[in-house]
Amino acid sequence: MKSPDVEILNAVFTPMHVDGAINYDRIPDLFEHSIRTGAKGVFLNGTTGECMSLSVVERNTLVEKWVAYRAKINRPDFKIFVHVGTCNLFEAIEMAGHAQDLGVDGIAMVSTFYFRPNTLAELIAQCEYVATAVPDTPFYYYNIPSLTGVDFPMISFLESAAKRIPNFAGLKNSHSDLADYQRCIDFAKENYALYWGTDQTFMALYAAGNRHYVGSTYNYMSQVYQKMLEAHLKGNMKSVTSTQAEAESFYNIILQDDGISAGKEVMNLLGIACGPVRRPLKPFTKAESAALLRKLKETTFFNYAVGKENLEADAHS
């Protein structure tokens, strides 16, 4: 994103072979692609990365590969955030310590979702338990109630975490409670970074004062958000509205069901090979991939898609 006050982290997909094994050789290409999208960093091993379908060893190895390539191309400015959430807090601490040793820029975690915290105090306690094990790295709570079933007001979480966790740095929030989030923005000011995780409301949250984002669609349609932002800054609300309508047509195709299977297939169609999803998510069949491509071609998606030049090259080869 070209706007200097907006920070987008691409929630990256985990590249896989047809058999579901991780294709670590694809990471350099995914890294370079993330740079081309205009992102200022990546969010590894999150929902988009199929975190709960990966082993601790796999998650740690992915971080190693991304950090190693960042060093190889000398891009210390390109941020790497790592999600370490799991239902086993010992494993979360293991992954967090590994990430800190590698020098990542941020560590995030979801709540446990088996043996869930019953109170806000219990949630704060488990975050504190993991965060204090990595005191030298900024810690973020990843709030995604639709998947964890853990749902507390984030303004209350912020107020408490700010007092209890010395390295607490902010939130990744994937929730629909905009009133609560507005209170979080007002509380955070310049002291905490709040990463909004629902791409569909990017522009609405920008207007509300949000400047940090993490999401999957920035991997392939970041130019849509750039166009909306530029129009907003010029006061051209008609363009913002029409571009948002275009984006909605893309969301309606890609973000159905889990949103990850189709998102990965979009990347594959654009020539940024990510392979299939792992079970229990459902991999796309050839027929489903062809149908996805046909539906996207019926919209203006390819006017914006990052990587479309690969598709165009294939069409003329």
Give the topology.
Blueprint: E1 7-11, H1 27-36, E2 41-44, H2 56-72, E3 79-83, H3 89-102, E4 106-109, H4 120-131, E5 139-143, H5 145-148, H6 154-164, E6 168-173, H7 178-188, E7 193-196, H8 202-207, E8 212-215, H9 218-233, H10 237-254, H11 260-269, H12 286-297, H13 301-304, H14 308-315
Parallel strand pairs: 1-2, 1-8, 2-3, 3-4, 4-5, 5-6, 6-7, 7-8
Helix pairs in contact: 2-3, 3-4, 4-6, 6-7, 9-10
Task: Write up what this structure looks like.
The chain has 317 residues and is of the alpha/beta class. The protein has one domain (7-234): TIM Barrel (Alpha-Beta Barrel). 48% of the residues lie in helices and 12% in strands. The chain has helices spanning 27-36, 56-72, 89-102, 120-131, 145-148, 154-164, 178-188, 202-207, 218-233, 237-254, 260-269, 286-297, 301-304, 308-315, and strands at residues 7-11, 41-44, 79-83, 106-109, 139-143, 168-173, 193-196, 212-215. An 8-stranded parallel barrel has the order 1-2-3-4-5-6-7-8, surrounded by 4 helices. Strand 7 (193-196), helix 8 (202-207) and strand 8 (212-215) form a beta-alpha-beta unit. It is globular, with a radius of gyration of 19 Å.
